Amino acid sequence: MSRLTIWGVEGIKEISPQDQLGEIIAEACRNEPNGPLVENDILVVTQKIVSKAEGRLVPIDAADPLSHKQLVEQEAVRIVRRRGDLIITETRHGFICANSGVDLSNIEKGYAALLPIDSDKSARRIRDIIRARNGVTVGVIISDTFGRPWRNGLTDVAIGIAGVAGVVDLRGTPDSLGRIMQVTEVAVADELASAAELVMGKSSGIPVAVVRGADKDWFRDSKISELVRPAQEDLFR
Amino acid sequence: MSRLTIWGVEGIKEISPQDQLGEIIAEACRNEPNGPLVENDILVVTQKIVSKAEGRLVPIDAADPLSHKQLVEQEAVRIVRRRGDLIITETRHGFICANSGVDLSNIEKGYAALLPIDSDKSARRIRDIIRARNGVTVGVIISDTFGRPWRNGLTDVAIGIAGVAGVVDLRGTPDSLGRIMQVTEVAVADELASAAELVMGKSSGIPVAVVRGADKDWFRDSKISELVRPAQEDLFR
Are residues B16 and B31 in the same domain? Predict the structure, then answer.
């Protein structure tokens, strides 16, 4: 029987540039009241601490809206929509999101945080350090908080993955009546990021969560590009 | 410390029209190997069994694509996009999804399942029966599997809610550096639906999941319209 448990990792301090994020997470996980990590746990790590550790902070004049706007445009490969102050862009990674993912909240005043340059690499680095220090192989998801069309509210999605599937393809699997299903590609990495957000919240200072009990079939080599729909297949740009 | 546990409810048989779905779920939860429901558990129930129990099944000629297409158009208030066989529509509820939510998988051959007419009411009915039979007040989410623009793969979202927030508003809450946050409205009902999907899968025959450990602040009167962005605020229709 499938059963998931999800909790926030305690004891991770405010992250600064040059911090060895993987080492900090590895140590926090060793000292967790919930006990050590086990094989096939999934670590969900918020983009913000990854960006901070990787020094993706740029000075910004918070009093000048133009300063933020220029940064957003500089980080975009394409403007998808614009209305008033709201800018929806496509990033170099292929993500479509507000403000190119440029973030001002939970950042030291006078700075903005940019998305990691290669968020799969950020995830792999954490995974490698956990393997070396904690002796277990885990999946790692870097998560960020995105809006979406048509529905109110934000949800967390995956922006970088290592060792865990982005999309699980159930095409051809018989449904519960024994017939072949049409198409069911489940975006498990996004669902895992959303599930983890529920224990992290926005202001709780918990930037890493553990998901235990994930399906063994989801653990494999992976790239975030699995989750990015090619422009020519997309009906909404 | 926040900690969520999520599992699928065992022992729910194939549902047919006229089945008393609330009673069936209430009984399955009483006999669960994980023990009885407790106050503030959240039940996530897939749309398909709700539609079946409510008799939202219509005959369809599976060999004739036109038969499906007519049904999709009849269930739509507006066609949002169309390319080849793919039709994205707006439903009476305000949901924007493929095929007006008309579903052929896991349905008896020759039939299609339509969305519940009033999915909040479906959720409330289940919640009331659980309160009467199991003696606990739970939140109920009716979930369905939707695609989204820009990203590959489907995720589960909420299409009906009772007693649990759709969107939790963190606007004005200080961030972890003590400053006031800009805007963070989290779509917790969608994140809960996605989390539950991870233990239900598509072909596993587990149509109900329990989420235990949700934030007490999320339990309140609610309507799915919280999650539907008004057309005039939407940039993508």
Answer: yes
Shortest CA distance to A15 belongs to which of A7, A6, A24?
Answer: A24
Query: pTM of the prediction?
Result: 0.95
CA B229, B232, B233, B236 torsion-angle sign: positive
Pairwise CA distance, residues B11 & B28, whole Å: 6
Out of B152, B182, B236, closest to residue A229 by CB = B152
Structural domain of B157: 5-55+116-229
Last residue of a domain, one of B69, B85, B115: B115
Q: Tokens 């904690």 label which residue? A: A134
Do A118 and A162 touch, CB atoms closer than 8 A? no
Residue B203 token pair: 């072909």
**Does position B5 have pLDDT exceeding 70, yes or no?**
yes
Question: Which residues 56-75 of A have a C-beta within 8 angstroms of B?
Answer: none
pLDDT (tens digit per residue) in B26-38: 999 999 888 999 9
Determine the residue of chain A that is closest to B32 in CA distance.
Answer: A1
Q: Kindly state whether residue A236 falls inside one of the protein's structural domains.
A: no
Residue with tokens 């922006």: A159
Query: Which percentage of chain B shows pLDDT scores above 90?
Result: 80
Contacts of A34 in chain B (CB under 8 A): 3
Touching B: A residues 82-121, CB under 8 Å: 83, 86, 88, 95-96, 104-109
Last residue of a domain, one of B99, B115, B131: B115
Which of A211, A214, A176, A2 lies closest to B10 in space, CA to CA?
Answer: A2
Residues 6+ apart with CB under 8 A from A63: none
